[in-house]
């Protein structure tokens, strides 16, 4: 039985940092990435027993992805398919980020049946899922969703039936406002009223906003110069879910998320989330 099963994209990230276009000083870093993959690594660093389910190709990149999960002690339920492993080209400099995606093997998520995994995990996390996966949420006891991608193109009324099966909804500000067509605070209330237990809005360099319908928390980020933002959302999400699953209060869970995101944006790489010792040290430093 896993504490967390993360389902979604597993990619190879080609990261070009420093300028919008490559030159001799901006040789791309090639590292494992993908929203669900980053989230799984974040959970594993926090000592949660973690699994990952998704798709990769039959290629060299898939071997690097398998090895990365093995290094972090993550159990994989990955299917190899006759499509190339997903690739993301990332141009980044400080708060600037531009991503070009090739979905590749991740396309198979659209027909993925999650029911066989319901008895394997205490908590299901969907990251950047196709709409088709949301119908399986009802089979799991505890769930979280980080919408991203195609879900953000779906309007609230179409998503409304699924919210009663989501315990924690983790959009960023632009995503929730696009879904609901209104300011994030009002949008969060709409989603809570639709049956979701907790909405946590990642506000990028403005911090976060979280509500369960009664309590409302708004926190600023820890002060640091932004070096690289890729993976910060998943770092926040994994640390928040870890704290929430362990029964910590809403404000503390938000602080854990902000601390892990703080660690991520201070270095290159989408899986540089924080350990618990690092989270505590960051919170203590700025308290």
Number of strands: 13
Low-confidence stretches: none
Total domain units:
1
Mean pLDDT: 91
Structure write-up:
The protein has one domain (4-286): UDP-N-acetylmuramoyl-L-alanine:D-glutamate ligase (3-Layer(aba) Sandwich), CATH 3.40.1190.20. It is of the alpha/beta class. The mean pLDDT is 91. The chain is built from 8 helices and 13 strands. Strand 4, helix 2 and strand 5 form a beta-alpha-beta unit. It has helices at 35-45, 60-71, 156-163, 173-180, 184-193, 232-245, 250-265, 276-286; strands at 4-8, 11-17, 29-33, 50-56, 75-80, 86-93, 96-102, 124-127, 143-146, 168-169, 198-202, 208-211, 216-219.
Secondary-structure map:
Layout: E1 4-8, E2 11-17, E3 29-33, H1 35-45, E4 50-56, H2 60-71, E5 75-80, E6 86-93, E7 96-102, E8 124-127, E9 143-146, H3 156-163, E10 168-169, H4 173-180, H5 184-193, E11 198-202, E12 208-211, E13 216-219, H6 232-245, H7 250-265, H8 276-286
Parallel strand pairs: 1-4, 1-8, 2-6, 4-5, 8-9, 9-10, 10-11
Antiparallel strand pairs: 2-3, 6-7, 11-12, 12-13
Helix pairs in contact: 1-6, 4-5, 6-7, 7-8
Could you give a short description of this structure?
31% of the residues lie in helices and 24% in strands. With 287 residues, the protein is α/β, with parallel strands linked by helices. The radius of gyration is 18 Å and the shape is globular.
Keywords:
287 residues, UDP-N-acetylmuramoyl-L-alanine:D-glutamate ligase, 24% strand, globular, nine-stranded mixed sheet, alpha/beta
């Amino acid at each position: 039985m896993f504490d967390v099963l993360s389902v979604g994209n597993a990619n190879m990230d080609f990261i070009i940092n420093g300028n919008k276009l490559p030159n001799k000083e901006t040789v791309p870093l090639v590292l494992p990435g993908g929203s669900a993959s980053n989230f799984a690594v974040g959970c594993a660093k926090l000592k949660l027993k973690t699994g990952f389910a998704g798709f990769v190709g039959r290629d060299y990149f898939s071997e690097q992805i398998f090895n990365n999960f093995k290094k972090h002690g993550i159990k994989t339920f990955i299917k190899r398919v006759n499509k190339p492993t997903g690739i993301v080209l990332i141009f980044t400099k400080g708060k600037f980020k531009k991503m070009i995606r090739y979905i590749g093997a991740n396309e198979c998520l659209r027909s993925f049946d999650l029911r066989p995994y319901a008895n394997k995990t205490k908590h299901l996390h969907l990251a950047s899922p196709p709409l088709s996966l949301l119908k399986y949420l009802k089979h799991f006891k505890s769930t979280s969703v980080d919408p991203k991608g195609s879900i953000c193109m779906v309007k609230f009324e179409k998503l409304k039936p699924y919210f009663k099966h989501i315990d924690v909804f983790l959009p960023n500000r632009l995503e929730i406002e696009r879904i609901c067509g209104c300011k994030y605070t009002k949008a969060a209330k709409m989603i809570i009223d639709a049956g979701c237990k907790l909405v946590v809005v990642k506000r990028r360099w403005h911090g976060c906003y979280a509500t369960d319908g009664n309590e409302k928390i708004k926190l600023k980020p820890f002060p640091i110069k932004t070096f690289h933002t890729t993976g910060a959302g998943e770092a926040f999400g994994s640390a928040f879910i870890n704290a929430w699953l362990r029964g910590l209060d809403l404000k503390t869970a938000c602080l854990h998320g902000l601390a892990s995101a703080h660690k991520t944006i201070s270095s290159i790489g989408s899986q540089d989330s924080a350990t618990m010792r690092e989270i505590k040290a960051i919170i203590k430093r700025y308290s």
